Amino acid sequence: MKVIILAGGWGTRLGQLTELIPKPMVKIGNRPILWHIMKIYSYYGFNDFIICLGVKGETIKDYFYHFEMKNNDFTIDLSNGNIQFYKNNNENWKVSLIDTGLNTQKGGRIKRIEKYLDTDINLLTYGDGVADINLPKLIEFHKSHGKIITLTGVRPPSRFGELNQKDGKVLKFQEKPQTSIGLINGGFMVFNKKLMDYLTPNENCDFEHGPLELLTNKGEVMVYNHEGSWSCMDHERDVDYLNELWIENKAFWKVW
Description:
eight-stranded mixed β-sheet
């Protein structure tokens, strides 16, 4: 079972943070959010990744090509070039870095990695969202209904604290609570390979608009209701929020 991560978009809403690097490489703590996402999957035993590259994809390639150097202490003997690494990480990941085009929409990116899929059921997510999701339960739910794709429905956190008040008196204050109205697609999807029949490798093949709408009309889309926490890195304030949680040891997605 492969884990496909969409990491090729422009990430324009992050402003200056993505002028030099792609959004999935923006850091939480001292690691890219992409690493955090992969750690969630790896915790549950999913270590075979396909990363769909696009904008500034060479930065992500460079990160993984030099992963051992970037994530471990080491001694280098400058007289002969020999390097001894002192392992600080235990990642046993297999990472396929596939260029899926600079301006390709999500559906086209997914279709372009079809040849790398060797199982019927695979996992798919975006390169900017984290959650404390139980992946085995998600996959079990997907297998139970027999439809083509399962989305994970999440309630996004409020961008501001909420005041619960009566007659001007604050009864309860919640800092960035999960909203209680409506679900959105939070990524962490599971799909059968038949999904590929609804996609094309064309640059303008979207995913949410078109293919998912068609599959929904056919009754082939199900939603797994994630009751836990979820957040994405969409604006600079999200970067600050996620880093604040990480620094304070309150990172809800740190299941490992």
